[in-house]
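Listing S7. Sequence submitted for prediction.
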Amino acid sequence: MVDPTPDDTAAAVERAAELLAGRRVVVISGAGLSTDSGIPDYRGPDSPPRTPMTYQQFVGDAEFRQRYWARNHLGWRRMDAARPNQGHRAVAALERAGVVSGVITQNVDLLHTKAGARRVIDLHGTYARVCCLRCTAMISRMTLAERLEAANPGFAEDVSATGIEVAPDADAVVTDTDRFRMLDCARCGGLLKPDIVYFGETVPAERVAAAYALIDEAGAVLVAGSSLTVMSGLRFVRRAAKNGVPVVIVNRGATRGDELAAVRIHAGCSETLRAFAERLAVPGVPASR
């Protein structure tokens, strides 16, 4: 598919804004929405090859799990420090104005919530919580960080995080992890795992049901920054299309849902979502920066 010219993009934005006007819009967001906040995506046209961790790797290989926690110990703070960009803020403004009825996000970065959006389904969980796979206890990532700091004094300082790349699941690209000490659940001794749905793991049924309910109430669906490569996001676009609900897709690069889209915009999420908010006369649209 050939990238459109600037004039074609502007025309597509106008068509999409006209289509969204007066409808209850559900936003489905992916990693491409957060790249302007400094969080790289998995499958963007300029992204390096990545091999996301699988659930089977995490639970079945103690060495792999040690390496993961060492890298996450450095990477999660970078994600925690990330701030919403104008795309996230535009979605929140659209929600306050009654245009957006809810957000289904594949991201674990909490940036929609930080931007002020209220009805957000974190489909794949968030980086900020940790669960025990045995007793299901939940603790904050900060609580675990304090325990890991005490168990690994000086590790973060010795392996400087300056310039380290952090993947969308808060995994820092670090190789010197052999001496890192993992910790188990303080309550039962079970395995601790970030509250994130990994490849090969099932999204909790209640989240899926809540997302389908949003889609079934929608008058339009706006996909922002997702290639829809995995079924966890694509199924909602398919549901919308089956319901006869128009779909608008904003993404750099092709997506698996392109054939279902009424309007397809090859552009960045931040500027496009802001343009939607301006064209729909939403008050309090955040200033561009």
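Caption to Listing S7: primary sequence and predicted structure tokens for the chain studied. DSSP finds ten helices and nine strands in the chain. The chain has two domains: 1-39+84-124+203-289, 51-81+127-196.
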